[in-house]
Amino acid sequence: MRTIRAASAALLGAAALALTAPSAAAVNNTPYDFEVTPSTVAAGGRITLTAGGCPSSTTVTSGVFDTVTIPRNGAATATVDWDATPGAVYSVQFNCIGRVGTLDLTIAGGAAAPSARSTTTTPPQGVRGGVGGGFKELNAAEIAAGSALVVAAATATVVIIRRRSSNRQQ
How many CB atoms lie within 10 A of CB 164? Predict the structure, then answer.
């Protein structure tokens, strides 16, 4: 009898985890196999842009580098502007025969423009605590689904405990 209860609890937990885990398909939902490598780069750094699966050349635009044309099923490189804001996230837009895909490019802190090098150093600023980006994409459907799973788990726990206590009294 305990094995059945343990298996039920394990299945309920696995179902809750599966329903609340983010989908891997949500990471890159572009029409073709577009990619920006690396996805985080310092100002002045070089990135590689690929457009796998596109049947023609692909035009790539962003506010942080010059427009680039990628040959069919190929790759190209772009140099990020020196004046890109550290910590900012820029949109990189791929256009393959009218089908548009957008990926993000994050600018890391650090390197300064060669002409603006400074001899002063900035002391470390410590850890910045907070909730981070945990609530950025939370919506009502996710809240309702999570709440329903918590209520179902609590109800199952109460039912199992009541059955156990009523069996002991007999």
Answer: 12
Q: CA-CA distance, 117 to 98, in Å (whole number)?
A: 42
Domain limits for position 45:
2-112+147-165
| 7 part of a folded domain | yes
In the three-class reduction of DSSP (H, G, I as helix; E, B as strand; rest coil), residue 36 is classed as strand
Contacts of 68 (CB under 8 A, 6+ apart): 49, 59, 60, 76, 77, 78
**Domain annotation covers residue 130:** no
121 in any annotated domain? no
The CATH number assigned to the domain holding 88 equals 2.60.40.10
- Kindly report, residue by residue over 91-122, the tens digit of the pLDDT: 999 998 888 888 999 998 754 444 444 445 56
**Considering the domain boundaries, does residue 120 fall inside one?**
no
Q: Which residue has the tokens 């040959």?
A: 71
| Separation of alpha carbons 107 and 64, rounded Å | 9
CB atoms within 10 A of CB 103: 20
The sign of the dihedral angle between the CA atoms of 133, 135, 139, 142 is positive
**N residues, the chain:** 170
What's the number of domains the chain is made of? 1
Return the H-helix or E-strand segment holding 14. Answer: helix 2-20
pTM over 0.85? The answer is no
